[in-house]
Design goal:
By secondary structure, the protein is α+β, with helices and mostly antiparallel strands. It has 9 helices and 6 strands, in the order E-E-H-H-H-H-H-E-E-E-E-H-H-H-H.
């Protein structure tokens, strides 16, 4: 997937740059524009010149908005970029819209089908937006982060005694994430992970050695 912006850390600062390799850089030929300015008539050409300038400016505004949105996401999701999905913060389109002073529908349109190249790989802009649950410490928890924690717990379980959804909920609660068993089941299914009854693996049977007495 070709990223629309590149995000990288330089010293202690995060840098966001638009990927301009995917589209040609447009500009109005100033020589022709000056000729039209100095001559009468040519209303059709004048109208086309106006449309060309509008198009160029629209593309510039689109890139500027994309950078603003990306910078806002990076500022809010620094811990995710540095430490992974378990550190994703809850965030919705409205949060970004209010932060940069734009309408929520504009943020939705700008982020649609857009991708960001990060130290965590190429990530879709929409991946940074998720629902939230209240943590036991009073802070909000991102559903993306909770799913990552569920995946971690299941990845470390004993294959012979896999964790039930209730056990996972209890372990998450100990970590400060208050989540119901049914929510764990919902997120586990979203991760396409089978229930504990289907994850259980029986230990391989040891071959029996039969000794034979010498005749």
């Amino acid at each position: 997937m070709i990223p629309d912006v590149y995000v990288r850390k330089q010293d202690t600062r995060w840098i966001v740059e638009v990927n301009r390799s995917g589209a040609p850089r447009l500009r109005v030929n100033q020589a022709y524009a000056d000729l039209l300015r100095g001559s009468g008539g040519h209303e059709t050409l004048r109208h086309q010149l106006q449309e060309a300038r509008f198009l160029v400016r629209s593309l510039e505004i689109r890139d500027e908005t994309l950078v603003k949105v990306a910078l806002c996401i990076v500022e809010r999701q620094t811990e995710y970029l540095e430490h992974g999905e378990e550190h994703m913060k809850p965030m919705i389109l409205k949060d970004v819209a209010e932060a940069i002073g734009m309408h929520e529908s504009t943020i939705s349109r700008v982020t649609a089908n857009k991708y960001m190249h990060t130290p965590r790989g190429v990530v879709e802009f929409r991946h940074f937006f998720s629902s939230q649950l209240a943590g036991t410490d009073g802070t909000d928890q991102s559903s993306t982060a909770i799913k990552a924690r569920i995946r971690r717990l299941i990845g470390r379980e004993n294959p012979a005694k896999p964790l039930s959804d209730s056990q996972i909920a209890a372990l998450l609660n100990e970590e400060g994430t208050h989540v119901a068993r049914r929510t764990v089941a919902k997120y586990r299914e979203a991760l396409r992970i089978a229930p504990s009854s289907e994850r259980r693996r029986r230990p391989a049977r040891q071959p029996q050695v039969i000794s034979q007495e010498k005749q």
